[in-house]
Amino acid sequence: MNEFSSDEIRRNLRESEAEQATALPLFANAVDQLLDPATGATEAEKAGFLGVPHRRSFILGGSVVAASAIIAACSKKKPGQIPVTAPIPDPSATTPTTAPGSVANDLALLRTAQSIEALAVFTYQKALDSGLLKTAAIIDAVKVFRSQHREHGDALNGPITGAGGKIVTEPNQYLLDAAITKELAELTDEKSVLVLARDLENIAAQTYTGASGVLTVPALRVAAMTIGNVEARHITVLNGALGYGPAPLPIMSTAKAIDPKGYVK
Amino acid sequence: MSMSPHTETEPVAGSPTENASTSRRSFVRTAALGAAALGAAAATGVALAPGASASESKMSTSGGATATAAEESLSAVDTTLLVFLHSVSLSAQQALQSGSNASYLSSAIAERIREFARHHRDQAARLGKLLPTAVASASSANPTLLSQMNSAIDGAGSQTALLTVLAGYEESLSATFIEALGQADHFTVSEAIAGCAPILGQQAATFGAEAGQPQSEWMPAFAPTTGVLTQSAYPIR
What we know:
- The complex is a heterodimer.
- Chain A is mostly helical.
- Chain A has a single domain (6-262), classed as Ferritin, core subunit, four-helix bundle (Ferritin, Up-down Bundle).
- Chain A has ten helices and one strand.
- Chain A is globular, with a radius of gyration of 20 Å.
- The model of chain A is unreliable at 1-10, 19-68 and 70-98 (pLDDT under 50).
- Chain B has a domain at 72-218: Ferritin.
- Chain B is globular.
- Chain B starts with 19 loop residues before the first helix and ends in a 19-residue tail after the last helix.
- By secondary structure, chain B is mainly α.
- At the A-B interface, helix 1, helix 2, strand 1, helix 3 and helix 4 of A face helix 1, strand 1, helix 4, helix 7 and helix 8 of B.
């Protein structure tokens, strides 16, 4: 493998953050324009513009970073490494048997996702503040992840307010109680931080995976997966840092997606 | 591993890898469209639920029978979409399997490529499970994509060049599956696609990082949705 350059990583980080800073106003403007009543667009016109099916398909009812080095490192198997390829999860085990989508559920999923993004930002900040992270590459990766989760959360503002919902700024309390608070208190070293981060990213990625299957608006399914796909990439980096294969499974499970009891409605 | 871009190879034809800012613009556009649609639905009380079509009434309460029930109720759109994704997955499997035999690869990288080839195979199986048996049996690797991938792989003369080629195709496949989520009619179809899309992102990131691409390419804030493989450019035979 080639030499790793910290300078280049930091330059990449700066460029990435600069791009993020310019993207958010664009997002907000686009949403504002689409939702501005002054446009006079009727609901049918909006649907037509969006390419949203409005006949048969409408139904009534509620309906870094040094991660390259980390990944490279995982080419060397370590004792206890999980199998390179695991069996395919049985789809019938996780496939709901009734259609789960509804507008109310859409909004709850979006707000829940935003609360998970807030939770991730909170957790990564705690990890950085803990002083347990010693490896420069890992510190850089955690900073990128924190930044990207913040951007994901901000990006959800438009869809939530566009649907008449309220923006969520607080970390998801259910997950905080069930999976984070105690774990944060028990962190002992860098590896323990990475394990917690990977658990958190799995919750996030699997929640988006589940949401992308059931959101009733096609464009939102796509948008949700543009985030969920990146959470999965975070897992890849963390897997590498922990000595696991970068993508050990062929199908993303939803078994660790947030329990509906934790939805922010 | 260097984070510098490598220039040994040309970008993969037909599967461009876009930069992070482009992917953000794509997200902005997509999410804004979704927000407007959801807002309209919320305002009118009418649900936009192509994923919960009338066929949902056929869904079985038995988990094991879910695929069969979905199979019976697949729309033409879903059937075509699944066959297309099935065919590109098989192409990726075959191309990666072939590429893993390149003599210049380290054993670890060769095994990684074979592992991801198996993932494509397993994803094809997952999608095929939703198709009528006869349709799934008749589906095969997408000829245009397979030919293109094999050509690009054969043209790579080094490990880094091959990884760059594969990263580009994985990114295109990732974008293709993400976009497909917006085309699915039935939620069982969108669920199956959703299960595959994150893994394709992981594979794109792995190959991109291994190839020494800039971090912003393989770890963008939002996954790219350009470079999509279309049914018109990659027809099913």
